[in-house]
Each structure stands twice: as structure tokens, then as C-alpha cells.
Amino acid sequence: MKAKVFLSLILLCGGLAAPLARADDVAPAAAPAVAPSAAPAAPPACELPSYLLSSESQLPKVADAVKAGKPLEILVIGSRSTTIPASEDASYPARMQAILKDKLPPSEAVHVSVELQSKKTAEEAAAGFVKLMEAKRPTLVIWQTGTVDAIRAIDPDDFRGAVTEGVVALQDAGADVVLMNLQYSPRTETMISVPPYLDNMRVVAQEHDVPLFDRFAIMRQWNDQGQFDLFSPSRGPELAKQVHDCLGRALAQFVIDAAHLGPTQQQN
Amino acid sequence: MSIADQVTGSTLPGTANPAEAKPVGAKPRAAAPAISLPAVGERELRLDLFRGLALWLIFIDHLPPSLLTWFTIRNYGFSDATEIFIFISGYTAAFVYGRAMLESGFVIATARILRRVWQIYVAHVFLFTIFLAEISYVATSFENPLYTEEMGIMDFLKQPDVTIVQALLLRFRPVNMDVLPLYIVLMLALPLILWSMKWKPDLTLGFSVLLYAATWEYDLYFSAYPNGFWAFNPLAWQLLFVFGAWCALGGARRMSRILASPVTLWISIAYIVAAFYVTLTWYVPQVPHVMPKRIEQWMYPIDKTNLDVLRFTHFLALAALTVRFLPRDWPGLKSPWLRPLILCGSHSLEIFCLGVFLAFAGHFILAEVSGGPAMHALISLSGILIMWGVAWVISWYKRVADKSGSKSKSAVGSADLAGGG
User: In CATH, what number is assigned to the domain containing residue A78?
Assistant: First the structure.
């Protein structure tokens, strides 16, 4: 009798948790609401629940730069998944620049540059950060990392140490930092163990109060909701272009939110 | 029937208490060593039940997340099916080979354990071959420009000479193939564990805890190829295995008073509820974050590789509740509804390998057919049905073979009872 009660409790919890987790999925993306006049509405495929686009951490230096009317210099440090081979203009950094220009006041100069660290682990990439920051002096650094570490099965503790060092180096150089985690790649799910790297990036982001752009959860959301078929073996660049367009939009929205640059905040 | 009635005589999964169950003096051998063994012959159905459950959950967890994933226990607390699996494996291994060691001596028991290790090793190599086939196929047929970077995983195909040798040495292990190597190492250590348990069980458990603590303190690990370390650190996970063995060899009986006390009950419930709340904050970000930052920093990351203390205690709490509310003689254990689980649990090595293979196959079908959630659910369900069917066939074959085999083998050492993977 008691066993039955216990078992049914477990099942009940299961039944409750599933709808809860999905409850937010229907919430419309925040994107169109922010700048209805300036930016063209995002394509419906880009829609995301708002919790994937918000962060408790903030970007004070970006906010100051925009308020003071200074140019916004953004540096994206990434690996090969930051670009689309042979279509750089369609990759998410380029798309983010276009969307930010649209959404921020016309007087605001936005410039996004990309620093590719192909086939480098977080540790190898972080080693060059001091020099890189001296050369570029960005307001905001978006550091996308983790994929190479996951492929090479780097010790997650070492990975966490390397990401921490990198974030500290970037912050010491006077920039705001956004961390971006791995892509959701269902085809290679049986071959690359991703969760430890996602977890550790979340931990570093929390410890250093850095916004984390959860690319993995976002792409999985699109795949699960059927907006994109990420299993597709297609060799053409169309899918990659669409996904990067949406990522660029989401990232721009994420930066605007974390820096409190939405229309309401700007009026004050 | 009071709670006390239920608890006495059913401590941790599978503890028949020889002192009560057997007629006095039936087995004088049991009195001599420091350890005691349950009665022969009767299978402990709860072990099979939960091992079968663990196998199903591991299979579902290896598939991409779907609605069914919400039924796996890792979503409701810190520990998951792996803990159940390793604990029960330690329990059954000690149960079977501990008896062999008492009856036939150290050398014979060791030889039999090594035979079992060989079987597990061959199973692992077989799974690796399937993995090679899958990855080679994906490497040649999948060129989505979105994922050029992820295809770097194929680089190891460029030097098969090194990779395959490292795989045979258990140092190169693809994703989802970490449990069998862990089990091989634990089984290799089993003769030593049993020999030491025969001498002083509590001290052996103490050594195990010390080794666990040293692993954390000095950051000990097994290195892997091309770099990194084993995803399940045997030096940490041995704690569960040895604890399982300790319970099987009489520890559970000695703990029965602790398990029966209401204090244990309420601590367990409180801990499980707290763990449930914490996991809720991972999956449902809307749940208000009332957790103090200091607790978060102390708690995270909850390390699976080194069997975090939070995971271990969560498993203990679950086990304590299970033993309390699911007595050994619960009639439901004989019900046809639980039969599939028990069948799968009693052929665990075969079904574990089948589960890993089915997870590979399921991924493959999902990728090729790209069906929606319906397809996904269908794959999960048919996977479980296949596991059940194969377990049934194995049982049937064993029954037939045993009948014609003129009962030359005694039931004592049936390897599948000690199985696992």
C-alpha cells in the first residue's frame, strides 16, 4: 500500500514537471516588442521564450558607452562555429551588428570584429587575451568557447580554470564579457559529451557575474519546436545562414537586455 | 502491519538475513568468518527489479531528450541510474563470488571473477566496433556547414593505429561507453575487496571511504586518451561498489536498526525534497531563485566523475526509503506488470550492451528519418520492448539449456546474477 503511494507520487511529480517545463514555450519572443518601429520584425522561426534571452548579470560598460554616445566596439572571440564557411556576412557576428545598428539610436556607431581561434581550447585561446585586448580595446567581448575542449575531452576542471582565467583577463582589460556556450549538434550527440562543458561555463558565468548566452539551449529549443531541422545532412549553406541570422538577432537582443538599453530604459 | 514489521528482515535490497532465514546450524560455515551470506537459491527480486529499472533509465538517458526523459530519476534529484547500477552490481558480485570464495577458496573465486571480467571486456570491444561503424558513416555522409567544427570529432579516424590500440587499453572511450570500463576495473579489484571483507568488513569499508577521500583531496584519476581522464573515476566510484558488497555480506543486516528509525526516514525525505527543489531550479528557470549564493557556490558543480558526496548521499536516501517501503516479500514483485523489469535486470550484461546499441541505433534512426516527438516516443518504447523481448529469449534459452544440461552446474554461481555492466 505504502509502496503504491510512493510510486504514484513519483509518477505524479513526473507528470507535473513536464508541463511546467513547457509552460513558457508559448511565450512570444521579446524581440518584436522592443523596437517595433526601427527593426524589421524577426522571422517567426527565431522565436524564443524570454527566459533564454535574459540574464541577471549586467553589462555596465556597454550601457555607459551607449549613454555617453561613444562608439560601441564589440569583439567576438570564437572558433569555427562562429562563422559559416564562404559566407562570412551571414554569420551571427555580422547579423548581430546589423540588428544592433537597427535597434540602437541611429547616432550610435556599432562595430563588431571577429577573432577566430580555430581548433584552440579555452586555455590556448585565453593565453593570447592580454595581447589581443591591447590591440583591440573593445567595450564588450563575446567569448564563444567549449566546442574544441569537448571534442578533445579536456578535463572539465581544467576547462573551468581556463575559462575563469580568460574571463578575468578580459575583465581586467576593461571590457564587459558575455560567454557563449556550444552549439546544439544532435548528429554528434553520441560522440561528443557536451554537458560537463555547459555546466562549467554556467558556473564560471555565475561566479564572475557574467551574462551567459545559452546557444545550446536556444538551438535545441528551435530544433525541438520544429523551427529548424538541425539533423539535416544538407550540404548547402541555407540552413546555416538562417540559424546564424536568428542567433545574431537573439544575441543582439540579449546584449540590449543585459545592458538595459531597451526603449523604456533609454527614456529615463 | 506496522512499519517495524516491514523493516525487520528486509534491510537494504536483497539482504536475506541468514541468522533468521536458515535453520540454526544448517550452514556452520557461516558462523566462522566475519561475514555472513544470504540463503542460496532464492533470487532477490528487488535487486533484479531495480537493476532492470536502471537499465531502462540508462537507455532512455542515452537517447536525445524527449518526453520520456522526464520519467528518469536524474530529473528529480542528484543521483541517477548509474548509482543504482553500480551499487547493485557490487551487491550481487559480492553475493555470488563471496560465496565462491568461502566455498572454493581465493584462487578459484579469483579465476571465476577474471572470467567474468573477460566477458565484460569483450562486450565493451563489441560496442566500440559498433561505435566505429556509426561514426565512420556520419563522417562520410554528413556535411552540414553549420557543424564543420563539430566534425573535428572525426579527426581520430585519421590515425586508427593509435586510436584502436588505446580503445583496447580502455583509455579511448567514446561517449556513453564509460560504464563498462568502470565495471571492469571494479571487478578486477573484487578479489582483493572480498578477501579483505572476509577478514574485516568494516575496516574494508573504511579503507574504501579513505580512498574516496584521498581521491578528492589529492585529485587522483585515471588518464584517458587523447587527453583528460575517465568519465567515471573508478577510485571514487569504488565507494558505491564496496558499499554494495559490504551490504551484501551482512552490513545491511547490521544497519537494519538505523534504517528502521524514524529519524533516518525524515532525514531521507527532507534531503530528497531539497534535492528535488534544487533540480527544479535547473529545469524550470521560472522557479524563484531563493537559493543563497553561498550555498550555490559550495554546492556546484555537482561532480559526476568523482561521485560527488551530494550524489552519494542522495542515493543513500533513496535506497533507505526504497528498503523501507518496498519489503522483500512485497507481493507486487511477483506481478506480471513488473515481470519485464525483473527479466531485464536478471540478464544485466546482455541487456546493458543491447541498451547501448539500441541508443546508437535510435540516434541513427532519428537522424535519418527526422521524425518528430511521436517518432521519438516510438523509438524509446520499441527499444524497451526489444530489451524485454531479448531478456525473455535469454531466460527461455537458459531454462531449456539448464534442463538438458542435467543440472551439472549448481545455481550458486550463475554469472548473470553477478552480472552488470
Answer: 3.40.50.1110
Residue A246 located in a structural domain? yes
Domain borders along chain B are 3-10+42-397
**pLDDT one-digit tens code per residue, A15-67:** 334 333 333 333 343 333 333 334 456 677 788 998 899 888 899 999 999 99
Mean pLDDT (chain B) is 81
Q: How far apart are CA B124 and CA B118, in angstroms?
A: 10
Per-residue pLDDT at B2 exceeds 60? no
Determine the pLDDT at residue B271.
93
- Write out chain B residues lying below 8 Å of A196, CB-based: 304-305
- Chain A residues with CB under 8 Å of B301 CB are 156, 160, 199-200, 203
Q: Does A8 touch chain B (CB under 8 A)?
A: no
Is A268 in contact with A69 (CB distance < 8 Å)?
A: no
Is the distance from CB of A261 to CB of A61 less than 8 angstroms? no
Compute the count of residue pairs across chains A and B with CB atoms less than 8 Å apart: 148
Mean pLDDT of B22-37: 44
Residue A267: inside a domain = no
CA distance A43 to chain B (A): 19
ipTM: 0.74
Q: Cβ A187–B152 below 8 Å, yes or no?
A: no
Tell me if B58 sits within 8 A of B81, measured CB to CB: yes
Does A58 reside within a domain? yes
Q: Report the residue from B175, B229, B366 with minimal CB separation from A231.
A: B366
Cell of B99: 560465496
Q: Number of structural domains, chain A?
A: 1
Tell me which residue in B286, B326, B370 faces A51 most closely, judged by beta carbons: B286
Distance CA B253, CA A187 (A): 48
Contact between A239 and B372 using a beta-carbon 8 Å cutoff: no
- Alpha-carbon distance B96 to B378, whole Å? 37
Query: Where does chain A show beta strands of DSSP type E?
Result: 72-78, 110-116, 140-144, 176-180, 212-213
Range of the domain at A101: 2-18+28-261
A226 located within any domain: yes
Q: Do A51 and B325 touch (CB under 8 A)?
A: no
